[in-house]
Give the backbone structure.
Amino acid sequence: MSDLGAASSALQLAEVELDRDPKKTIQILDEWFPFLEAEKNHFLLCDAWDLSGRWLLLSGRDLESSQAFATALQHAEIAGDLQRECRVRKNAGVALVQMKAYHQALHCFLDVCEISVREGYALLEGQAENNIAVIHNMNGNYEAARTIFIHLLENVEAMGLSLAIAHYNLAEVHLLLGELDKVAVHIRAGKKAAAQEDRTNLRAGFAYFAGVLMRRRSWNLSARRQLERAAVKCREAHMTEEMVRCSYELASMCRDAGEHEDMMAYCREVIQFGKTHGMMDETVLAHESLIAGLRVNGDGESLWHACREYAEFLTEREAYDAERMRVRVEMELDLLEMGRSRRRLERELAIDPLTGLDSYRILSRKIQESRNVMTAPSILLFLDLDNLKSVNDTYGHMVGDRLIIAFAKEIRRAMPEQGIATRKSGDEFVVFLPDTRLVDVISQIELFLQSLTQKRDIGGVMIPLSCSIGVAADPCNSTEPSVLVEMADMAMLQAKRAGRARYAIADRAGAGGVA
């Protein structure tokens, strides 16, 4: 293995260790950074700085993580790797969320969404949408967050997302909405998924949710034991926010039980870690509970210091609340615009810009939709112009484009109303004819081929149209759209080899019978 290959493998190991043992991640990075800098390999340098930024985030060093992501972004841009650039932008957005810069974070995620939809980066699109939902959640828009999280759970496999994370987010938002039965469902499913994905940190998080669920159902003794275990697991898994929440729940239970010393110990833990991680609500209640406990104990000096610390914190909290309200309004406006942009982009992706036919990208979805109302078998046609190359070579590509447009018009004219016509690429077209039998479509294909032979004015030149057609039957050949297209394509090639300007029918094995 080459040195660069070894470096790439080391970074992959560092990625795995980030969830298991972050210390090993930084050790690997420290070992390989000098080599990567000397080699000036911008692809791997981008990956290394991106991992460094994520490690710094886990360590609570938000500002330094932003600087690391900025460096990673520079390397991605130099390398010209758009996918890496999107990934770093997404992670930089997470750092901005940690710093409560929600507006800027949202713009990062919106950019990633837009590029990912355009370029087909399904995983990054899903992760960016997930982070937008997290911002909703942090700003109290629980219903909006729930809607996005449910959508992501339904599309986990298609987007390549983590099933454990999808269940984790839904468990949290259902808990915030008081939907306890749904919380239990997602805890069970999420724990199983986290074990399968070997996500120790999420297993610790589900342990916290289980403890809170027990408390909400008034199973106090079981809840306390569960939360104590969860706090230890969260600390070991570097789940600081969940650890703080465990401590807050335990402080609340100790207060209700009159155990003031234990309550104050948990409150101090919440205050220590809650402020640095922006957990303002928990920190306020911990300050108030601590002050109440000190009054009971009669510790005047400690009470004075606690009150002074609380007053300073409240001043910071006022500024935080004002910023959160401003960001919430801006975020809602941006999300509205994102929805408009997404719908506009989807419309653009659904139409072939040259011919106005449907885009081949949406063929599978259109076929599935048509099957919901179909009562008979269907036919898929693969059409390929025979003379486009010679027209391009003789008259130029502008005339060639007009030839393609003219051919698309002929397809649209000959196609029945319920048919679906798409342009696959260049001079290739795919047509789906629902509720159509093979015996009925043959005569229509023959008439269509005959009609093309008449010369027509294409950009001031009289040119005949000619095409070869492959025919596949649903369900005789297959019910899977991609297989039908492949078999019709093979049949079309048979028609080409047989002399062009004709059709061929795919048999069950995929070969073509020419006519």
